[in-house]
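Cross-check.
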Amino acid sequence: MHPYNRLPSSGHSTPSPPQSPLRSPRLRHSRSKGGRFTQAQQPGRTFPQRLAWLILSVLLRRQGIFLFAPLIYISSMLLYMGTVSHDVVPVIKHRPAAGSVYRSPQLFAKLRSDMDADNSSTDAISTIWKHYYKGGQWKPCISNSTGGLPESNGYIYVEANGGLNQQRTSICNAVAVAGYLNATLVIPNFHFHSIWRDPSKFSEIYDEEYFIKTLENDVRIVNKIPEYIMERFDHNMTNVYNFRIKAWSSIHYYRDTVLPRLLDELVIRISPFANRLSFDAPPAVQRLRCLANYRALRFSTPILSLGEILVARMRERSARDGGKYISVHLRFEEDMVAFSCCIFDGGSKEVEDMKAAREKGWKGKFTKPGRVIRPGAIRVNGKCPMTPLEVGLMLRGMGFDNSTFIYLASGKIYDAERNMAPLLEMFPNLLTKEMLASPEELSPFKNFSSRMAAIDYTVCLHSEVFVTTQGGNFPHFLIGHRRYLYGGHSKTVKPDKRKLALLFDNPTTGWKSFKRHMFIMRSHSDSKGFELKRPNDSIYTFPCPDCMCFTNKSNATKSSSAP
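Predicted model, tokenized:
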């Protein structure tokens, strides 16, 4: 009987499947009837072929031998290395990342002749700003309160730390906090810093009487805490409770945490106070910040007088351009170069100078175990301070010719004689406060870094073009102040330093190509002149719309682009 088959039968028996192939290589060849290979079937082999065949057969039958392959390979490599001389070490060359090396001097050498021969530059200083705000313009609209103030909840004493403009942040924020808490603000104390080393008091930098008078209907401000209150603390401010407030705390923290303690103690101290209030705050707080920064804070009479004299002298010298001049904030002082950890072209002397400066200013900070400093990556990310040579190249590429008058706001430039030479060659009409003012005029401010910075601030504020080359509080405040004065436009060249790093690191770039890139960067600065404050932006850099109001203007110039 046959088993049941689901497949239809064809009437023929199903052939049996073929036999499995023989496994041994020796048995894959047919044998003669006597069990031996025939002469016709087995061709003759040489000895090496038979030996190789034998080894292959052994390996296939004894596969465990492959476990020793790594050991055999390592032994062979050791035997080989023993025959190689170790005096010859292979050199692995790698190409630095684009933009990671300082090659600006080589680019300057290549572009110099074409730059000097270029007569196509237009009147750049009068044509640089072309963008207007669409449909109208921005105007200052801060108003003072008119009514009286309720009874004070107590006194707030703050210590403003940092340089000139970091202290300015503390002052404006202190006004806002005191007004919000209905407290009396004591004139802020300036903390002496080991870097700026300026012992100046509030009244030596700002007009204290004008400050108090301007804010009298919004915030109570006094010179000192009454004696009857200080008796409780043995007339010692260190005995007063000090709030250690986290950076960027909200105004609600002051209401919920600081105010109850203020009501109990009648006086509190906040030290340090820089950046201790969030930029995102209610309109009432922002109004007080605007009022303090743009209306109440005015430099002291000696600083303001000399600053205005220098502005007049710059306008007089640049009369050919209608009294318009460029101001450049150059951060290439020794401490800035050292802090950046960037490498320039000063060789071994620069390396030793920067090591000494870092150790003097920030003992041990840059030599902590595990800290890795990558100068190339810093440069690629646009974090290196621009050299005087790079500033000159950029401005010439943007169309400013060598007759342009430039005011240079800076401290003592590192290796000034060598580093300033290319910039002075490109712009011989470059001036500083030391060149514009006599030694007698500068002597009251000479040893006070914050007062000298205040003079620079004044001259930069009134320039037609302001050029910032490095971040920091100075340009941030100045950009906002210029927006406040010039209808919302900062009139500031803010270069793309990442792009510049790539351009400066390419000595093969031609003058026309370089100039095209610089004009694009200049146009971008123009279009970004109008910017509105976003949440968490600084009101001191972006005064619109908190400190300025937009007004429709029927005959406004048509904007080429909306902000």
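The first strand starts at residue 136 and ends at 140. The mean pLDDT is 87. Passed to J.P. for a second look.
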